[in-house]
Protein 1
Amino acid sequence: MNPYHFYCMNNKLSINNLTLFITFLAFSCRATAKEENKINSTASPLSLHAGNEKYMMIDTKQSVLTWKGQNLSGLNSQTGYIYISKGELMIENGQLTGGTVEVDMNTIEDKNHGRDNKLVNHLKDPDFFEVEKFPYATIAITSVVPVNDKNQNITGNLTIKGITHPVTFPVKFEVRNGIVKADSKLVIDRTQWDVRYKSSKFYDKLANQTMSDSIEFHMKIIARK
């Protein structure tokens, strides 16, 4: 074969091979870019989160804690409110995983008579919550166990009058449009936090004046980004 023809053939083959290689490389780059875009799209944070978790600040103007106490017979009960001073909830992958709530005990009020009355003033005294010495009560969430899509059981450390005990209670929880709504009920034995006034555990012969050791708290919490 003519050496010139042989050189031309080899040169054409090299060019063809180079063309095939460039085409393959370009195709591979496009495919890789598509895969990376797909992965990045999948891994993009949800609108609720920064990364996979987000601290949501409690809206203190729309959140409230309702309390209920009664005598031992249950015939005479009192209901009122306490307001949240600050707090935050930690949301991870759309679920509640932690948080803290601080309650201002100076905001105790009676449902029917407001804050400035004999009952409320007595609740602030050492017989009950000793508010001047212990102005805040707090709960810090330590664990959350899902029950279903909207209901969870929360365990946390509840501190009242400087005394801390663990408590567990159910919470109905919802996240929608960047807003968290939590609704829960907690019943405690007040004597565990040194609230002993007219308790049958510490006072004898109180008859129908004996007060129940149980205090019920109903918490409605709104939290936002």
Protein 2
Amino acid sequence: MSSRLQDKVVLVTGSCTGIGKAIAQRCVAEGARVVIHGLEKDLGEALVAELGKDRAVLHIEDLTAEGSSERLVQLAVSTFGKLDAVVNNAAMVSASNIHTTDLAFFRRMLEVNTLAPFSLIKAALPELRKVRGAVLNIGSVNAWSGEPNLFPYSVSKGALMTLTRNLGDTLMREDGVRVNQINPGWVLTENEAQRKREHGLADDWYTQVPKVYAPAGRILWPAEIAAAVVYWLADESGPISGQVVDLEQHPFIGRNPPKDATTIPTPAK
């Protein structure tokens, strides 16, 4: 068995499903112990059973609840004795544009996607400082601009990107803690499949994605994102901090799709 994360303790938010679940599975495969977090208790319990109760522990709670960050950190320390890394993966993904977005919705999006990661980093910092640990924020390629109907989501991920760069510098200098970010492109998660079904697409829609959106003929798998995560959590990434890396199969900025490109529902993490 590989051991790139041997004996590390990793907290992964939003890890009952999708990308977060794949990250937790890969971390354990690489020798880590993990704190699973999410809102789906049954799915979380199934994942803990799969990974083993000696390798995983579950916490079900809305990240915006008062004190949730502190409770997650305490669970990691009380269960496994330390905390080496935090993966801020949990996110609210919901389509809306300037016309359908009100302030309450926008605030909720920022609370979940930007302020909750900040809160967790702050709560975890005393533990991460002890081990010169790492933070990896999971953003989105939509952070660079985003589609019109992903307006608040895109803004929240753009703010997360600035948070990563700012703290990646500050915390490395002051605490020896690295903060980096990956921006996944279009990933075939359970939630993404469900959203596309709700948009009226057939169950096998992902086999017919136009090549302008997926040059490889398919979109990304959660396991492929998880594979990239390991590098940023492992000691092999050394002192690298404050970096944002896009994980997509085409250049996202400056790309010029053909004018006759087929339009399909907007991709989102």
Protein 3
Amino acid sequence: MTEEVQILIARLLAHQTLRRDDKLVKRALSDEIFRTDLDARLKACGMRFVDNVYADHVTLAFTRDCEPRVFGTRETWQNNNFGLARDGVALLVVLWSLIILPKRARQEAHQAAAEDQTDMFGKEKPMLRAEETSVGISYRALLADFGEKLGKKTRLDMNLGLLARLGFIERKGDQLLEGPLLDLLMDTDTLRDRIINGALSDIFPLPVSRPAAELQSTQDDVAAPSADDAS
């Protein structure tokens, strides 16, 4: 078992992500003794195993107490540890909202993306995989709706290219699809205020005349990405 734990960690370090249906990943998710050994070895190196039931992949991240020591000297640490500019972080939030939130709703309803209606007994079925429920968005629609607020076409294209290289999205023609990291690196409890009041406050400013209760409701509806959930 020790050798298998080492192999799993080495593969995650080499490939960044592995699918949940990978043999060793499945063991980490189902074998308590194997998982305990895995977590202990990772913790000794300041790392942790990242899993999300809505995602088809798993990855590694730094433990919270190690993050500021590793990334705290960088200016972008207040928003992320990928070196993304403020408009890049905001674009990531927009993509997560447009791609992941509808996908999660379909997963919870046990409805595949191609289905026209929900099976009345759907809740008795296992949760569908992301690849069965995730639907991309149109690049042209994204540009039309958010281009002006996200740096126009040149800046938007640059940030989309960066997010694709990092593994957050995949591009197929006009379609922007979920990448292996897009639904793994969200931590709304920790980063919600930091992202909304930081990156998004400049790009999507909220009118000061709106009631405080309405502003709080708006913030609660926006999910912020935990780009600091990856290494």
Protein 4
Amino acid sequence: MSDLFLRRTPDATTADGADADLARARDGDNAAFTRLVESLRRELHAHCYRMLGSTHDADDALQEALLRAWRGLARFEGRSSLRSWLYTVATRTCLDLMETRQRRAVPVDLGPSSQHAVLDAAPRTDVAWLGPYPDAGLDGGRASPHARYEQREAVELAMVAALQHLPGNQRAALLLFDVLGFTAAEIATMMNTSTTSVNSALARARKVIAQRTPSRSQQQTLRKIDDGRLREIVVAFSAALENGDADGLVTLLTRDVTWSMPPLPHWYQGVDAVMDFAVRVPLTGCGSWRHLPTSANGQPTVGCYLWNADAGRYLAWSINVLTLDGEKIAAITSFIGSAHFAHFRLPDTLA
């Protein structure tokens, strides 16, 4: 992606009272350690997600990393900032987890698109799927406007999906250098390697990312759309599904739109194929829908609920992340599964 990363300089300062909390934490004060890491928890979690492509895996990685940091705090000598040290621990934890887990995939990784709706498709349970990321809170704290923009840009679906095609060392080097602003020398120390190796990993990683991501990021696209107009697009998309309105839906889509639904392996490309699927499945074949707006991966998103007669309620069904090209929808990624909703703090059911 062009201009994807707006580099940030790692914060080498400590907040008032941090030194005292560090001393207490080294003496075994868990509350002091919690205070030390609390302001960094959100950005560390996002880093783990970028590395691993799964919110669930990011939860596990962050928990393990903070446990390692707590146990190894006596080894932190203060030669770098606490933030730098915690990123070292988190990155190494993610690299360890990657050795035992599959890389995260999206349906386009598995094969060509389908030209017509595939009915009664079975989920692929043998694939580790990329998951959506709830980005609420990424804008928080004392981050600068550039940093807030960067935080959202670096978790976009296209970027995180592309990162999964990189070996662990390249993935870590790219994120630490281009996203988080660490120097090649610092990264070499963090990863127990040489500066030459880091620079080589960066060159290789950037080549893959350039091939697998669009030239314009979603943040660049969204900045050109008025907030009111963006809400209109999301509302129109939701209304088209709720009303079974094929004509209304097709007016929202680009000609080369894609629709994928992990964990279902089939995906569709082009307005004809997408509409064949839409008309035969969500618009007429599923039943009644309701939607709640949210945000995932720095992109407009809707939580989709499907009517269940036995329950007498609408049940959580999928998190639909929209990718825009101008004011048209260029991709719909429906992450099917009620388990996603808890991360977005969305209800399990609607009346």
